[in-house]
Amino acid sequence: MSGLYFRGKITYATKFGRAFVITPDQGLIPADTTITSQVLVRFADADIDVDNPGYRQPLEQTARALDDETGPDAEFVLLGSIASEKYVQVLSAIFGDRLLFPATFVGRGDMSRGGLLLRAAAASQELQYIPVIEAVRHGVRPPRLAR
After folding, report:
1. Nearest-CA neighbor of 9 among 125, 144, 118?
2. Which of 12, 25, 30, 129 could lock onto 117 through a cystine, CB 3.0 to 4.6 A?
């Protein structure tokens, strides 16, 4: 896991909205939740797969609860891997076309996305979002970010 990427996601998410983390067995939890070393070990042993009910069911339950809490006009921005069905399949089934992601993520690796998010947060400039459903989520790597 890239520290830059995770730091970028947390910084950006807390700057522009509420931040939640997808866990292997507890679904979505607030980003400021304290994680003990025992929980971290449990997370490390978990099977993060859409076919694993221990992963999928808590994610579905917490996503539905968040959807109910926020209402039909809320938008949900995925800052995790948009290329991974383990997140997209579950969340898009609940949030539909309200599940968005930054358009500039396409083709970027973790480090590049982390740097992009940190720069946007520092500049107080929210990125442009597009719906995950029917989006091109794999693409040519864009030019490197300027130093």
Report:
1. 118
2. 12
CA distance 129 to 77: 8
Domain of 102 in residue numbering reads as 3-131
**Could you give the 3-state DSSP secondary structure of residue 130?**
strand
pTM of the model: 0.84
Assigned domain for 105 exists = yes
User: Which long-range CB contacts under 8 A does 38-47 form with residues at least 24 apart?
Assistant: none
For the chain, what is the domain count? 1
Query: Euclidean distance between the first and final Cα of the chain, in Å?
Result: 22
CB 51 within 8 A of CB 59: no
- Positions in the chain short of pLDDT 70: 1-2, 83, 135-147
Q: Is residue 141 part of a domain?
A: no
Euclidean distance between CA atoms 121 and 13, whole angstroms: 9
- Range list of β-strands (E), the chain: 20-22, 28-30, 76-77, 99-102, 129-131
